[in-house]
Design a protein that fits this description.
CATH class of chain A: Alpha Beta
Oligomer: homotrimer
Number of strands of chain A: 10
Largest sheet of chain A: 6 strands, mixed
CATH superfamily of chain A: 2-enoyl-CoA Hydratase, Chain A, domain 1
Number of helices of chain A: 11
Largest interface: B-C, 39 and 40 residues
Chain lengths: 283, 283, 283
């Protein structure tokens, strides 16, 4: 039995696994979480009985805050991936293609790479009152790199994908539902019961038939692996431009990646910082 | 003039045909209905004046219940189709490509193959109070085979397609509209008038321009014929696995395919049966 | 500095341009407007600092009424386009691919080619009370030719695209939002402030990152240039059939292209005219 430090794994039944993110203070996705999620994926792929994997969070304010950009990239060295993919891209591709049905139960914030992890799962339910989704990356000088460009385009359509991506704003549960960013926003007081009943129901169905459904829907809807690879490459390239570190310096100074008002209202916050306050950007 | 036994055909005008399903007790799609629908398609394709075909039901509780799985497969032998296609796949492909605009006016239940017939028409209007749509097949051990995997993926997007397909649940008119499963849910007291006015209006427009619209929207949105063929093949393959007959035996015993509580609440019902109650399924 | 006669161009900042349509009496898209918009596109493409271009209207009843079909086609001769494209198709293709984010702020009517211009921009916000969108072309004997067939298919899905296109009806802001025809319908009293704040916010973000977003979302969502070319070709072919001039004669007689009840309620109006009142159309 593998021991995980960034989340707990509960086998509610042989066919229903619950993964509860628990990486204080705000559920950042760090290198260790990524490695552990890849290990979890291997467990899922090898198991013959898991039909449903439900992802939720121990922190009602943060589902997954975002990527831990302050972490040491060297920590990811040595992680084996197919075709030299970035581990995060690898994780998402394998998650989407796993035979199990994956569900994100989103209470609290799911932004940046946290939103992208949720987008890589099959189904997203959101707490109407507590869920906040967003791709704030434009506010710190980059396009998202973990799949949001490709997946939002297909999921919510061109126009709403543009709005989410170029505004970097927060989307509450209700608007996220209207846009198709999540399947449904459920009133928070019914949220846990609704999601649990849904997951339990699906986990009792025939696993071969569930795998058939995944195979056909995947063939009809998944972006090409290569375009996901191009996305992450573009992200790291933008990180080398001057705006990226300049904006991150200001964000960290204000409280980025810490529990507090900046992370609670990150969508609003990124609208207040400028790479170079004395001049307009040029292309 | 062909005589039909599973539905009535009314030519409200040369350019507006109404097809009213009437196959008691619950509008099952049996071999005879399939053959008659294929004959109807030939009539539509040969006619030079039909612009709109409106499908509705004589039974306010059932638009089309689902496929009559208890029927004798031999009854479909000898039905000529292109490239050895299953007659149901053939029907849907020809329906989508016919120059006439096809509209499903859904009051009552449209599940399984009944939902898939509606998905193969161009436009779906639903009674807000009376319509119930669903793909319950996962509950009887199979992925749908009549186009739902391909068509829902394109129509409602990856995440909501997964939810509909892996839950097997019923979706009422209001939720079906929010998900894009139907165009709109119309209050039942306005439903007939709304649909009739819409169909009449469209049927008076220029037929060549309507055919242009169908051609371009088809090119942009239709799934490939081969992927629809693969879907039905996967369905019949799943029917040979043990879970399929085991679940159907329990369903028939409880009232499946009969008028009564099981068929009225089939989404809930399939959540109560297990292929092998003593063990969890394996893949 | 180019002088424009069909719209005003205001540079609110180096990275935020506002284009206000102003072509009385009802903001028809005539040959001059098309030429000026192509010139504007060249300005946008050459500028290194424009991040957002916001399109709105000086007329609260008309965003862009539709194409000025009564204009002399010779006025467009000599307009240089790639690969012999129609200028309108050229305009839309270049608009979609420009590195700047384009936003339509729709108050009043956007129908036919006016709706198609809005569909070629990246984001559409609509006044809940004042916006009216539609593709009325079917009512005058043609399928739309300026991108609506391809773009609506991708944006709102097969079924709702069919409904919009074959009905030719008007869609108010609220229904346009439910269908995804616009991003959101905003209460009119908040509309200007909302759109301005959105555009200003986006215009201050890193222009290279905005261009990255456009590149990836374009790759995932844009229709092929050739299918847009086929659409306009089909339109002009339909204009040579008898129904097209017959229906336009009746429309012009009733007040088409003039300020008045026909243009205010064009969706309803086109349901009242017939190409040949004495016979049903044939295909």
């Amino acid at each position: 039995m593998t021991t995980y430090t960034r989340f707990t794994l509960t086998r509610s039944s042989p066919s229903l696994w619950r993964v509860t993110f628990d990486n204080p203070p705000i559920n950042l996705i760090d290198a260790m979480m990524m490695k552990e999620l890849l290990t979890l994926l291997t467990e899922i792929e090898r198991d013959k009985r898991v039909g449903v994997v439900l992802f939720d969070s121990a922190d009602p304010d943060f589902f997954l805050a975002h990527y831990d950009i302050a972490g040491d990239p060297a920590e990811l060295e040595g992680v084996e991936t197919a075709a030299g993919r970035h581990p995060f891209t690898e994780l998402h591709i394998r998650l989407s293609k796993s035979p199990a049905v994956t569900i994100s139960a989103i209470r609290g914030r799911a932004r940046g790479a946290g939103s992208e992890f949720a987008l890589a799962t099959d189904i997203r339910f959101a707490s109407r009152e507590r869920a906040v989704l967003g791709q704030f990356e434009i506010g710190v000088g980059a396009a998202p790199g973990g799949g949001a460009l490709n997946r939002l385009s297909r999921l919510v359509g061109r126009a709403r994908a543009f709005e989410i991506l170029v505004s970097g704003q927060d989307f509450d549960g209700e608007l996220a539902e209207r846009y198709g960013y999540v399947n449904r926003a459920i009133p928070d007081e019914q949220f846990v019961d609704f999601v649990d009943a849904f997951a339990r129901r699906v986990s009792r169905f025939d696993l071969l038939a569930l795998a058939d459904i995944k195979r056909f829907v995947n063939a009809a809807t998944l972006p090409a692996d290569e375009s996901l690879g191009a996305e992450i490459d573009a992200f790291w390239k933008s990180a080398e431009r001057p705006a990226f570190p300049a904006l991150h310096r200001q964000a960290f100074k204000a409280g980025y990646s810490q529990r507090g008002p900046v992370e609670l209202n990150l969508g609003d916050f990124v609208g207040t910082i400028l790479a170079d306050p004395d001049s307009y950007p040029t292309r």
